[in-house]
Design goal:
The chain is an alpha/beta fold. Helices cover about 40% and strands about 25% of the residues. The strands form two sheets. A seven-stranded mixed β-sheet has the order 1-13-12-11-2-9-10, with helices on both faces. A six-stranded antiparallel β-sheet has the order 3-8-7-6-5-4. The chain starts with a helix and ends with a helix. The structure holds adenosine-5'-diphosphate and magnesium ion (MG).
């Protein structure tokens, strides 16, 4: 590759908001076989909104939604996860006068949820696995309600108070307007597109369907995302990983080319080889085309 063509290519890419960290990445992007997309904040807007609140009253017949949400909110206000922010914001909109107490203890369990002690009681908010870990029994009716919400593409989180199932909350995160068109372009370019997420299978499939993605890796724990990149590479595939979160950084570093969404976290941008300033998926086919053109010019 001549330095001149690389310079020109990088300049044109930069005009489109595609910032390659070095000429070698502009040169290698055209070799990609698979584009691996993080879900939350990459395929979706990453701005989930609280949509459903269900209080379970079998064990606590007097439990008010207000008290339920005070406990949930007190637990979640300590978490920086986008799901937590959505829950707290939703509670504030619903009950503007509600004061969320400070939790006496707090623990974020990546990929599972949160655990906090609020007003002397242990509060858990998160996945089925989080409930199983803490031996919380969730009735069949609640499980099927959860599945129904997930089939709508929502992320439902179970809530336990003092060791008993107390209800659930659900949030919805919609796909970016440009995601489906960008995925179609990638398919037309002959690339495989795979979505990867820590979210459950049903929600992940519903979101992927909306974006036209037919390959989905769901329920991937944060520490396993890089291993999924490695697995694809072991099949002889060259992988472009696209993500926005702190959780995505090891996978972005592991990939043949890491692409960070410019509206995401600094950690992701530091780990990546390219930053997509426009913040949407249409920059991925643009970046690969730019590389193809640059390489064609120099051959
Ligand atoms: P993603 O890959 O979509 O960003 P994560 O790996 O961060 O997802 O989280 C996986 C799952 O763990 C979430 O879908 C949610 O069910 C649960 N979870 C994570 N953080 C929280 C939280 N702060 N509160 C409740 N549930 C959470
Ligand atoms: Mg994300």
């Amino acid at each position: 590759a001549t330095p001149t063509s690389i310079m020109a290519g990088s300049g044109r890419a930069a005009e489109l908001g595609i910032l390659f960290k070095g000429g070698e990445h502009l040169e290698s992007a055209h070799k990609v076989d698979v584009v691996l997309l993080d879900k939350t904040g990459t395929v979706t807007k990453g701005k989930p909104e609280l949509t459903d609140v269900r209080v379970e009253r079998t064990k606590l017949p007097e439990l008010l939604e207000l008290d339920f949400l005070r406990w949930v909110g007190a637990a979640e206000k300590n978490s920086e996860h986008p799901l937590a922010e959505a829950i707290v914001e939703g509670i504030r909109l619903k009950y503007p006068d509600l004061t969320l107490p400070d939790a006496a203890a707090f623990e974020a369990i990546p990929g599972y949820g949160v655990r906090a002690v609020v007003e002397g009681q242990e509060v858990l908010v998160g996945t089925r696995k989080l409930m199983a870990k803490h031996a919380v029994n969730v009735e069949h009716a609640a499980m099927s309600r959860m599945m129904q919400l997930e089939e709508e593409g929502k992320t439902a989180m179970l809530v336990a108070v003092a060791g008993s199932y107390a209800g659930l909350v659900a949030v919805a995160d919609t796909i970016k307007e440009t995601s489906a068109a960008a995925v179609a372009r990638l398919h037309n370019m002959g690339l495989q597109v795979v979505m990867m997420t820590g979210d459950n299978r049903r929600t992940a499939d519903a979101i992927a369907r909306q974006a036209g993605i037919d390959q989905v890796l769901a329920e991937v724990l944060p520490e396993d995302k890089a291993a999924e990149v490695k697995k694809l590479q072991a099949q002889g595939l060259r992988v472009a990983m696209v993500g926005d979160g702190i959780n995505d950084a090891p996978a972005l570093a592991m990939a043949d080319i890491g692409m960070a969404i410019g509206t995401g976290t600094d950690v992701a941008m530091e780990a990546a080889d390219v930053t997509l300033m426009r913040g949407d998926l249409s920059s991925i086919p643009d970046a690969i085309l730019m590389s193809r053109r640059t390489m064609r010019n120099i051959r």
